[in-house]
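anyone seen this seq b4? input:
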Amino acid sequence: MTSYDLELFLPAIDWCDKGHRRFPTDPQFVQCQLMLMGSKAADPDVALAWRLADQVVQLTPESDRALTRLYQQVWVAFVLGRAGLADSARHVLARSEGDPVIDPERELLGYGAAARVALGDKDEALRLLERYLVAHPKHREGFRKNVHWWWRGLQDDPRFKALIGAR
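predicted toks r here
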């Protein structure tokens, strides 16, 4: 997903398609289709997004499905937001935050924060990001060095700069 992270969406689509053709039962290559639909790489298709999310969950080992389902719901929320269904996206995100039992690493907080940025919900994004950085204090350094395109809507916000310790 390096191409995705660098906003090189045409190569990301190409690699995602190639991977899915070669490894159709690998959930990563189904999830990448959903992730791309949540970006400007592909048109948002809500029905397809839910089908892809369900497929990822079904391809995931049973022991990991509860957490995987929440991750996929966050990706669907990105798609809902792009489709102009912000209220639906917020509803999905509210039920996708998880807790320390289901998400002991608290990674969902970061993904949920990114989805909130995409929706323009800066206050909620910052609240979630703060909780994420409490769980992952070493990630502040990564944010200072290289801010992923997900956070572009927060880059100029003084609260974001304070949160990551930017100067």
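Residues 97-167 form one domain. The chain has a mean pLDDT of 95. kinda curious what u guys think
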